[in-house]
## 1
Amino acid sequence: MRLNCIINGAAVSVDIDADARLIDVLRDALALTGTKEGCAEGECGACTVLIDGLAVNSCLVLAAQVEGRSLLTIEGLASGDGANALQRNFIERGAIQCGFCTPGMLMSATALLMRVQQPSREEIRRALAGNLCRCTGYEPIIEAVAAAADEMAGPA
Amino acid sequence: MAALATALGRATPASRLIAGGTDVMLQLRASGERPDLLIDISGMGELVFVREQGGRIHIGALTSFARIEADGLLRIHANCLSQAAAHVGSAQVRNIATIGGNVANASACADAIPALLALDADLGIVDRTGQVRRYPLREVLARAGGPRPGVGEAIVDLSFASLRDHQRSAFAKVGVRSSVAVARLNAALFVTLDAARASIAGARIAFGSVAPVAFLDERVAAGLCGRALDEDTAQRFADACAALVTEAIAQRASRPYKQWAIRGLADDLWNAIRGSPTH
Amino acid sequence: MAAFKYVGLSPPCPDAFAKASGELRYATDLRLAGMSYACLLTSPHAHARIDSIDARRALQVSGVIGVYSHEDAPATRYCRYRIVPGQAGCVDDESLFAVTARFVGDRIAAVVATSPQAAREGVRRIEVGYTPLPAVLSAETALEPDAAHIHAGGNLLHRFDHATGDAPVAPADAVRTCTRVSTQMLHHAAIEPHTCLANFDASGRLTVWSPCQSVYGARTVVADLLGLAYNKVRIVKVPMGGSFGGKQEFILEPVTAYLAMRTGRPVCLTLDREACIRSTMVRAQQRSDVRSTVGADGLILDLEVDTLLAAGAYASSSPDYSEAMAHKLTRLYRVGRYHHRGRVAYTNTPVAGGMRGWGAPDIATCAEIHLDQVASRLGLDPLEIRLRNLVHPGDIDPLTGHSVGEAWVRRCLARGAEAFGWRERVGLPAGTGRIRRAVGLACGAHKNGIFSDAFPEATTMTLKMNEDGSLDLNASIHEVGAGSAVTLQTIIAEELDVAPQMISTREADSESTPYDFGCFGSRLTYFCGAAARALAAKMRARLIEAAAELLAVASENLCAAGGRVVPLGGGDSGLSYAQIVQAARMRYARDMIVTHTHRGTSNPGSYCVQFAEVEVDVLTGLVRVNEVLTVVDIGRAINRQMVEGQCRGAIQSGIGSALCEEVTIDGAGRTGAGGFKNYHLINAADMPPVRVLLVEHDGDEGPYGAKSVGEIAVVPTAATIVNAVNRALGTRLATLPLTPDRILAALGDRAPSGSREPACG
């Protein structure tokens, strides 16, 4: 079947199997390999993408379910050729080690900041609870999200 | 809806209905099964709603847990359901998992089911003729064997009575982690207080994760009736919950743990009903 | 303390933006032209003879290219852990495909297909006839006289007996204490699943792309197994999404290489999470009986340990791993007499192998839980008993005869105790309500590199300066995500006084980067860092020598500063590095390239001390960790942020091992953990705030005094948490993890089925 949707701002039309998972279509058919697969059961969050602004595990979604929707993946995050505020804070604050969870973390954080402009540390922790990281102990990630939120809100 | 009925008309026992898909996707991948028909209802916006009508709260079957958790009406009328929704999986899962899917899949540890049982919810189920019939949730869950809803059926909405101001509900859960954890125990309590709000006039309590599917327990509920909101009742309530769990899972390896841990849930439920902080 | 220009700052890793933008290609992201996909069929039985393998139905699946098993693969046995040919301690007991299934998850066959789906479907359709054999699921039962043999030589894989010193005559008021501590099988839980790619080209060359920790080690194993010359096998280390030791041994490289050779196509093999947990390797299950005699003054007079470790179905690194457990405590404490006996048994369970800390967390968990019990019996503060026994700088480890070096663990403990407020908090009541609160602490020791009397420590690196003054470091770097590249960049930058960004690094490739053993043994910063510093010093000397010729001055009168060679005492008559490179080439046909082979001659102790506060819910048995303070004897932080990152990540892992992580085995040998749904990592919501204190000093052979951090940081964590829980509850829990079930059971009469911790054997 044919899937039509918007990915990172561009209209996409691609042939898919009816039972194909979204993550496979992104990674294989569309070569958007920034979205990672860590568990295939919606537990690790490495495959997180945004559908109409909501964070979802792309391993738990049928590609067919995003017909007509607007998707944001890690490849759509950078502004032009540079890092956006979240990415820059991740880089500067040691929120990235091996980097495999990073795309999913960034997408969950992006969804949070679209919904809540200045989240508390508790809100950040809860929003990221579905994204596992074995390297960082989470704290630099949480601090990076908070710092990016502060930056995006501008001077108080 | 007409299209749904048509699709349901083509369904066979080998067909699968997909709402959010968080359970079905895993089941299909694990089994390698390829259904003859995948009916994807996730795009049916008309099944996403929370509204009050005729003294009852109605929730569309495709309403996500994120939406339920955030809904102001439900916080007032169904605190236990708001709490249960907040305890479902991760933010990503709450964004797509639906209340209808949680009920249809009816896993032993589904968080919404104890809450809906405590609220005495009923289900609207559409069949292949397009007709919607209503069934009490407790009866649907008690149907012997087979998937619920059946082949060629789909849950379209759930409803329960609006809360009156002397009624309260609470949900409690224990998992391995404080969040994003499958319930090892979950329970929901609904009470109607007397006019002076000093004692319990009526109660419903549902337990999850101690049987193949969550259930209401009349004895524990009856034990609360007519009792004052005091420490003595709290103790009796905890003892009754513990006795029930001990009996329910007499043969299971988890019994030594659960028969004690249920006291923690009883404590949480009681504190929530009394309106005081847990610790 | 010397002032540094770059050391101690926190520049990001060179690949950070590539990771943040999704551009970095990990093994699972690589696509080779004509790539095919492999899927493994693994054993559903813990122990079974394979009678028949019928692949006919699998071969009918559209897209299936071939099905491979022991029926066609070489029967050669190999050791997945071997780094150098002929390595002592390596047991060749594993083959590409099992003839006898030895654990649930053992490799039986592989399907190669044009798509992952077809490969999976092919696996489902292979029919295997098994005759189940008696399964041996624990080290205890494996060593019983009538236990079924897992390998021909019997189940006792390895034993050791190390003793040193004589116990002083124990005074009458000395206490003798025994504690049996058990630690569990753990999953490394790198978020990147195990993946390997291989291609065998028409010219007979095999290339393997793997997120591995030793390209040269992998090459010897793969080439020897497949009968290829070493120069026909190229192993390329690709970006790695976490290892924690889980990708240290060569698990997928041999089978993927074989499948590529057989099919003549590029093959990609990726394991799903369940297979990563079950079929790669785990941290060993072990139990140790720790017996001590301690004087009333708290001095450890005698310490005896008896360890029994389950190796799983194949030896892998378990013999060496168990030996490592015996070589930690004498670097941590001054002990009158130390005696450690160990036995390692084959079991029909997942293969045990190296994991972060290599035996050090395992033995520290045992000893530190034990020491708290001793302190409690003596009425001593746990802080005090440790202060009285910890090693001092320059002590000789009596077991090896080598110095523990600049061992500043006592300062770590003292500084940490003050920062944590230990003395004020240790005496606070735990409370009597539903929530009990208490603090705990523990110490740990590990190492710095692989130097020992039995194994050499060496590496070779090349540094080249370009015409613009930029530099290329050619070294076999195996970046695991912990900052290897930025660490080496920083050291070279400091030594040559150029910006770290001026130095490019590359990852290990057995075809083009110089020999190195690999990334393990906590050797990167301490040893490879020292090598990089010496290499840079060599480059500096070469630049000064060339500048001296160009300027016609004596080289003793020149020095390097700010990217230039300038006269001592100032003046502006110097030359920039770029000018030197250009002029040396044009005038003297001389290249600014240096190669250095560095040899290690020391292996001082690395140390870490941790403090934590926990709250235990006595109704649900759930533990909440409120805060952790970790103090590391780092010597020198080369990249402060990466060092702190190692410390924080280690705490996440250590808390999990204390409380909730476990690869369980049921009565049939099946792993209970099928994925992250029931193998629980600490997530962001449950992670406590962590404070990191670094104790810095000069000394030892590491660059600027730097010592290792990645492994030592996890060593005391589990014991710290367990000690805090025991203090909160007044229990003596010593079987890990402290699940809610075990906690409620230990509360005895509070919970109906009260059970006691097992006594020492």
## 2
Amino acid sequence: MDFIIEIFNLALELIISFDEVVFEIVWLSIKVSFTALILSCLVAVPLGTVLGLNRFFGRNFLILLFNTLMGLPPVVVGLSVYLILSRSGPLGWMNFLYTPYAMIIAQMILIIPIVTSLTCQKVEELFMEYRELFLSVRVKKSQQFWVYLLDARYALLTIFLAGFGRAISEVGAVIIVGGNIDHVTRMMTTAIAMHTSRGDLSLAIALGLILLFIALLVNLTVFILKVIAKRFGYD
Amino acid sequence: MVMIKTLYIFIILLSASRLVAGEIILQSTTSTKNSGFYDYILPLVKKSIDVDVKVVAVGTGQAIENSKRCDGDVLLVHDQESEIEFVDKGYGVKRYDLMYNDFIVVGPIEDELNLRNETDIKTVLRKIYESQKIFLSRSDNSGTHRKENKLWELANLKPLKYSGGWYLETGLGMGATLNIAAGKNAYTVTDRATWISFRNKSDLDILFEGHPALFNQYGIIVIDKNFCPNVNISDAEKFVKWLMSEKGQEIIDSFRLGNEQLFFRSN
């Protein structure tokens, strides 16, 4: 029991004292995962919507592909991105390896399939609901696109959360392409892995609790947004 | 629009951490990082020669592979044989003996096999082998793993055929392997620096140390510019020169964790 109390104390202490080192890695984690999420959504939301609204040859194949890619092993993503960004790899000249950029790219590869698949599924649901209505009043395809997105906006928020969760909790890929370099690419998860390998298990779990706390804050924000929207009848 | 603006701000924020001149990447073994050695020495490097050293700590085998792909400027590892091969093949300029310490055998504190009274590593390994007590091997091509293999060879034993039985290949780093050893109360070979800085020792203790075969030499190599044109050769050489200088060696010698000296100067 003492062990558990010690961990909670340590986590609280780190948060309350605003520990500079911890704050730095927390901030980097948020920056990287948030950027990865935004960039991924710019690609994945339109992609998912197009997949959900249209019927074309190869569509089922694409849906199957993205669904499968949701299960991509992060380590494999990390290794692939590493080989591409390595100074001897095809994109080595960009000097992205061991920088936050590399970590963003790796996380994007992990998030895009999730956001694409889930968006596609949600939009398809709405499509079934509205198709006949839209056909009868002759709404243009491009207009339909925005209506579906607007109607799916709360579902999309949850989808973004799923993507963000995958990104910020992931360690296998970012530790390979980021290198867990102090003050440069050390994130929550890589720091947790590092402290585990130092045998400093309580500090590792304390950091894990802080990570969970951040996830809670993010989710709470979205939750409150939804509640407010409902109250004002925008649901 | 808001999204694009946010994105723009993030990109600006992130660009602060791009690689610039005055920075080098050190491909390193894990023991030097996990023990806090770099936290001690790198601020002094920055102060003396104004070089920012970014440390990527992986096992020796992986550090060498990464360097062969030109993803580092300096290599600091501990497997003399592969270091010499690395230089011979033209990947590195020159190899220096940087510092040393030693390997130790750790295991259950009760010491059922009475290893503490032994004087020869061969007998120690033979006793573990014959008792079939659980022994953890790194099996990750790290410096420690290669040393462990050499020690079994020296003792003329082939534990690999018992892999999955009492001889367990973790394929993990030293710290992760020590965590498993602590959980299973098993025997393993570790470098002293990782052991001293390791905080989850549980019921493990040093059972054997001090044999000449357990010597652990760390080497340092600047990656060859002819092979990797991107190497920041001037800062890399400045860094290695500083470490090998009287001052650098003195600082290596002065690093303590608790009251223990982890690395000893070679020069």
